[in-house]
Amino acid sequence: MKIRTILTLGTLAIALALVSWWMGEQSYTWFPPQASAESQLIDRLFSFLVAIGTFIFLGVVGTIVYVVLFQQASKYDTSDGPHIEGNVTLEIVWTAIPFILVVGIAAYSYHIYDRISILGPMEHVHESMAHDMAPEAPAIAPVAAESSDSNAIANPEVMIAVKSRQWAWEFYYPDRQVTTAELHLPADQRISLQLTSEDVIHGFYIPAFRVKQDIIPGRAITLKFTPIREGRYRLRDSQYSGTYFAAMQADVVVESSDSYQQWLTDAANQQLTAAYNQAFDEFQRSPGGRTGWQTVQPAPPPLVNYPGKGTS
Length: 312
Ligand SMILES: [Cu+2]
Prior knowledge:
Distance between the termini: 73 Å
Largest sheet: 5 strands, mixed
Strand order of the largest sheet: 3-2-1-5-8
Bound molecules: copper (II) ion
Number of strands: 12
Order of helices and strands: HHHHHEEEEEEEEEEHEHE
Number of helices: 7
Shape: elongated
Structural class: alpha+beta
Strand content: 15-25%
């Protein structure tokens, strides 16, 4: 290859890399705000994939466009192109590049998912580090489960039960025995949700948190994450679960630890009332309008201490 060709190709590759990097940065703006610690990691992985995808896409399409425009055979030339079978260097290069790419993407994805599972408040990390470095170690080393238990007590996770049914979300705070139709979470604390379904498969999905988990009937599934940005977000069902599936939504409020505690206390002092439920409401409103099609009758609205704002 001529020096000039190599320089041209090198310049093009650098320009392509810069455009791809820019595209990767753009991908952050395609999503809702990053409201959980997990969302920052997921978005970084997505940005990385967008950059790689852009590089490959522009490289392939650019080559095709260049060939179509500038490398055409002359009108009556029906001869073969150059015969390049048996080019070992070429075969090694086009095997090695995809191999390195796939292994790299897999390793990076694994690293992100690994970090998501251990993400917690900083105190947790300091706690365990202090624990490990304590000079007066007990004669009998605690087993791993015990030491993680003691950390959990020093830094309790916020435990909330999430009950799903056709078609309503219900949230239960076992510490205060409060039931709500709106999910309230303290910011910067590790949240541990126990997800259950009373009938069919539902999907717990908060786009702003980038967390999504299928809920399987007959099982309690634990989902952990850390909200980091105060505000009001939307919980949606990510698995089609029947007629009123689209109405199966709820608000998620992330607030400071103080106002969260205040809200919990206020809610605990309120009487149980029926929450507004869109599925149930629509079903009741048009009892005669459903001729010719069958539907499961929606579950009655959940009885809650806190029905939520802006829904009734
Ligand atoms: Cu559902």
